[in-house]
Amino acid sequence: MEDVALAAGVSHQTVSRVLNNHPHVSERTKKSVIAAIDKLGYRRNASARSLATRSSRIIGAVIVELGQYGPSNTLLGLQQAALEDDYIVNVVGLTSPGSTAVRESLDHLLGHPLDGIIVVAPVDSALDTLKDLKLPVPLVIIASGSTQEPNTVSVDQSLGARLAVRHLIKEGHETIAHLSGPPDWIDARQRRDGWARELAALQSAPGQLLEGDWSSESGYQRGLEIDVSSTSAIFVANDQMALGLMRALHERGLNVPGDISVVGFDDQPESSYFYPPLTTVRQDFHGLGRLSLDLLVSKIEGQEFTGSTLVAPALVIRDSTGPRPQK
User: Is residue 322 part of a domain?
Assistant: First the structure.
């Protein structure tokens, strides 16, 4: 630190203030110190800084259903945001969402130094475990459908579904089916509700409702079962099920989008390489990670969080949707 201070022509106390983002440092001084840091390749000592600030710069994260695309990519978004803010994330990943597993994970994290905890709780059992839970550190929950809670953030799943349906209606489709995810997943219910509400708002009768388990195999099975005689479009609750469904439709001699249009959800990297490339709803996992960390840090620092706790999705239009076929 003394070398940085000498190169910048300031005291080592001023360097410390810049490193800790102290408000009473001029922009000119900040730029000078940062330039010296870059020139010298200086790296802060996390242990020393923790002693000085009485902050561990460590947050705990419990990721329920880590093996699924949404929770795993939410973790990646959180880790990226934490890296940008110089936090370390101590992660516990769960494939079992039961109450005991969630509580044991929290106990494990609390046995180590940390400033706060973020829990990705996509299913009812995990979210129920967290209700009215008293922890010695701030807690933020990533869980759709609970945005009225002050410590919860989420992607607006219902809006994503409505964007998908709205696009299909604009293409002239009148009967839009839905392949939903598992009913105990909050995201699945939010997407199903968005599908139904948008159809009702546009005075269009809902099509067939089917249920899968997020896997391509379940999408394939439902694609073999769906009644295509009165269906011209299908909104699928995730891209993996859409992949399986399109394979089944192809085997039944149906063309996508010539006979049936298909919309997915998530915008997985592979979605643009499906045949045909999949129209889907993109979730901003980096934005979700950033929002959850910002909310947690505001709680750690005792500040009021004034931003939105919802991240907006976006529709990505590709080749799996088109005009309603004329029969």
Answer: no
